[in-house]
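REQUEST ID: PR-0412
SUBMITTED BY: lab tech R.K.
PRIORITY: routine
TASK: structure prediction, single protein chain
INPUT:
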Amino acid sequence: MLVNSNGVKPGLLRCILVDVNADEIKEVQCEDKLESFYKLLGCDFIDIQERKIGNFLYDVICDDEGLLKNGCKISAFDKNFEPMFVGNLLLVNYDEEGNTQSLSQEQIDDVKKYTITIIDKNGVRKCLKDVQYREY
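STATUS: complete
OUTPUT:
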């Protein structure tokens, strides 16, 4: 099996998955294809939003219908602990032309610093904190 220096198989993206149903925030590899995003997120429609977490900007791929689902679960908060996203999220990198790219080890390590455990009406789970809009 071929892998690059980051341990990623050729043709796959290195990403962070926030899985609110499995209570996990973990590194995953996936194809840069719409069907792969649907499968990982467990949804039928996605949206891609740019957000700053820690020292980096990320493309956050999310369930576009997350708020419409019963028992929606918060997956990310802003710096004031206001909900930023609900449902499963996939964090990826992008280049200057907007093409989806793998995360670097530095980005993955940085995201881990912003992982928290919360307790709400849906139980105990992990999510992201201090997710911010990009400042221009």
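NOTES: Residues 59 and 107 are 12 Å apart (CA to CA).
REVIEWED BY: pending
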